[in-house]
Structures are given as C-alpha cells and as structure tokens.
TrEMBL record:
Protein name (record): Outer membrane protein beta-barrel domain-containing protein
Domain Outer membrane protein beta-barrel per the UniProt entry, residue ranges: 28-215
Keywords of the record: Signal
InterPro entries (alphabetical): Beta-barrel_OMP_2
Leader sequence residues: 1-23
C-alpha cells in the first residue's frame, strides 16, 4: 500500500510539472530598463535652402529669386565628456543659381575663347539671365549644443569653414532677339571657400555663408575687375 501512494505521488508530480513550467514562462516580464547611451554622437544628414547674392560690383543687381540647395552628411566627433562640444567633418552636394543683370558671352579668338561681361541696363528687357553651378562640398565645423543624454531636441550654434569644388556650370541668356547658352566657363573659380554659421532649435536653424574668395578668377566689367563674393542666407535642417 505504501508503494501505491509513492507511485501515485510521483505520477501526480509528473503530471503537474509541465503545467508548472508553462505557468512560469507566462508570468509577466519585468519592465525593461532603458539604457541611455552616454557615448552618443550627433551624426546628421543636413539639407540647406538659401537665397543667393553676389556683391562687390557696382551696378550688379538680382533679378528674380536666386535659390541654392545643399544636401550632405556630417560625422560628429565630441571633444568633451558631456558631449556638448564637438567637431564635425562632412561631405555633400550643393546647387547655386544666380539670376542677375550680368550679361556674359563668348568670343572666339585665335587662341581659344575669350568671355566678355557687361551689366544690363535697367530699361533693357530680357526673359532670362541665369548662372547655375553644381558643387561637391566639404564642411568642417565646430559645434556647441545644449544636448543631454536622453533628448535630441536642443539649442545649437555650429560655425565652420567650407570648401566647394565646381563640378559644372551653365549660363543662359534669353530675350526677344537672341539666346545665349554656354557651359564650363574657364573664368569661374573651380575652388571656392568660405565661412558659415548655423544656429537654431532642433531641426530648424538659420544659416549664413560668406565666400572668402571670388566667384570669377580675373574677369572684368568695363576694365573693372569683378570681385564677386557670394552671400547665402537661409535655413538648414538637420536629420539624425
């Protein structure tokens, strides 16, 4: 009789064991503890939209809106423990459009092509007078931000230096009597560089860029050297 009860107890235990294990597996899990990344980086894609102007030439004026866009990526490298200071190096593409009253046309010569530049008077009608440029750009910036380990929304001030290499350019002029189009003007500087400042909150930031060298290398208007420096004002958006 003793053996009967022993076998019965073991049988009941064996029968209930799988249910016990299943019940343990179905118990609610402890809430996960979110681990904060103390070594975060603000690596960011950027998009820039600007209004472009070119100054330092008397009589030059903008006609219509002159837009500029830029896209690229910046690699963030923090330099303090709180990670509120950093340097960043990037690579991107930019498009610059200038709608102005600077007329340009090529003149064939025995030694190649020479380009002539004139300012269009205010009473002269034309439908289009546009210079379009495409660049590869390399920005290097110093960053300050009021970021924390748990939030990516913060105030920022980023200032930097940017080098831009001219990939291609196109000039177009059109009025009622003639149309002029040419590409890759050798008088344009292939390498442009300048300083910029970005400041704002979270995604929205004001953007200001000033060129430190001229758009044209040695071009003249009526014997006066053109020292056109580009000034771009607009917005820069950062996306993680």
């Amino acid at each position: 009789m003793k053996k009967f009860w022993t076998y019965l107890c073991w049988g009941i235990f064996g029968f209930l064991l799988p249910f016990s294990l299943e019940a343990q597996e179905e118990q609610p899990l402890e809430p996960e503890i979110k681990v904060v990344d103390s070594l975060y980086r603000e690596d960011q894609f950027y998009f820039t939209f600007t209004y472009n102007t070119a100054g330092n030439l008397d009589g030059l004026s903008q006609k219509k809106f002159s837009p500029g866009i830029g896209i690229g990526f910046l690699r963030d490298m923090p330099i303090n423990k709180a990670r509120t200071y950093a340097v960043a190096l990037g690579l991107g593409y930019s498009l610059a459009v200038y709608n102005h009253n600077l007329y340009q046309y090529p003149n064939p010569t025995p030694n190649g092509t020479a380009y002539t530049y004139e300012l269009i008077s205010g009473d002269t009608f034309f439908q289009r007078n546009r210079l379009t440029q495409h660049f590869i750009e390399v920005p290097l910036e110093f960053r300050w931000r009021a970021s924390t380990l748990s939030s990516h929304k913060f105030w920022r001030i980023y200032t930097g230096f940017k080098v831009s290499y001219l990939l291609a350019d196109t000039y177009r002029f059109q009025n009622d009597v003639q149309s002029v189009t040419f590409r890759n003007n050798p008088d344009l500087n292939k390498l442009l560089y300048g300083c910029y400042l970005t400041a704002g909150w979270n995604t929205w930031n004001l953007y200001l860029y000033y060129g430190l060298n001229a758009l044209y290398k040695s071009a003249e208007v009526n014997g006066v050297p053109m020292n056109l420096r580009n000034l771009n004002i607009g917005l820069q958006f950062y996306i993680l």
